[in-house]
Design a protein that fits this description.
single chain; alpha/beta; 9 helices; eight-stranded mixed sheet; about 290 residues
Length: about 290
């Protein structure tokens, strides 16, 4: 653990990290030090655990299986992996995590995936095409709708393709910043439809894809904030099914630092459960590791 502080906190150069590492670190940057985080299996777990080692050591991690505040050294296989229970504050069940933590408004950040997302942050994990005769049916909400509507902030990790970034989903499992008003039978801003409820201001705040990082404007419409190294804005637009707002692009997604990569590779996912490969360190970084080992 002492080695972490010896690794330079400088940005790695292109070729010294791979895309999944960049995405995991982008996820980690979404976590605040006082967050109570509800994370799903996969890169969300990797990112949150990395954040616990770096920028958000006091963030509390909750798994839907009932594990609260576990201190796992390495990333578990899933949210039900009992390794996640190591040094946890409490061990409960679905009723505890969804009923007590989430529905009571304690969860400040949810991390989710999705099959498709629309320009308002609505997510589909249910079906493609007509609901009663779909061309493809997915596994369904699980906790997606609950977490996406009741966590204070929600961040999504989604593979970006034109068929996945849509003007409007065929089916909305988890509403974004616009939702269907059953009183007037029309789409309206969620803050208007859900006004005076506890969850009117809860919704998506970030989307991390294999091409960039996205935010939402005051109207609840997604826009591109950064594009990943090696990806152009034009390529991002070509893989989007609607007219994407790129007027607020800040440039490239920040590269991970050597220290973040060291934490990610050596402490969070050394078994390569979710990361596909390990990239060699530079000779200078490797020398620090060898000297400190």
């Amino acid at each position: 653990m002492e080695l972490i502080d010896l690794i330079p906190n400088e940005f790695a150069k292109p070729g010294e990290f791979i895309l999944p590492e960049l995405m995991a670190i982008a996820v980690a940057h979404e976590v605040r030090n006082d967050d109570i985080v509800f994370a799903g299996t996969g890169l969300p777990m990797v990112g949150i655990m990395t954040a616990n080692f770096t920028n958000a050591p006091n963030a509390t991690l909750i798994y839907e299986s009932g594990i609260c505040d576990g201190k796992t050294m390495h990333v578990p296989m899933s949210v039900c992996d009992q390794r996640a229970a190591n040094m946890s504050s409490t061990l409960g069940g679905l009723v505890d995590t969804f009923g007590y933590y989430l529905q009571q408004g304690y969860v400040t950040l949810g991390f989710l995936g999705g099959a498709a997302i629309d320009k308002y942050g609505g997510v589909n994990v249910t079906s493609i095409g007509d609901y009663f005769a779909p061309s493809h049916r997915f596994t369904g909400s699980g906790g997606n709708s609950d977490i996406g509507t009741m966590a204070k902030r929600t961040a999504y990790i989604i593979l970006q393709e034109k068929r996945r970034f849509l003007e409007r989903n065929d089916y909305t499992t988890t509403p974004g910043w616009w939702c269907w008003d059953f009183k007037t039978n029309e789409w309206k801003p969620k803050k208007e439809v859900w006004k005076n409820t506890a969850f009117a201001d809860c919704g998506p705040t970030a989307v991390v894809t294999n091409m960039g990082v996205y935010r939402f404007d005051k109207e609840g419409i997604i826009y591109l904030e950064t594009h990943h190294p090696g990806v152009t804005v034009e390529q991002v637009k070509e893989n989007c099914g609607f007219e994407l707002n790129v007027s607020n692009v800040k440039g490239e997604t920040p590269h991970p630092t050597y220290r973040e990569l060291f934490v990610l590779r050596e402490f969070v996912d050394p078994e390569l459960i979710f990361l596909p490969a390990k990239t060699d360190y530079t000779p200078a970084i490797q020398a620090i590791i060898d000297k400190g080992a």
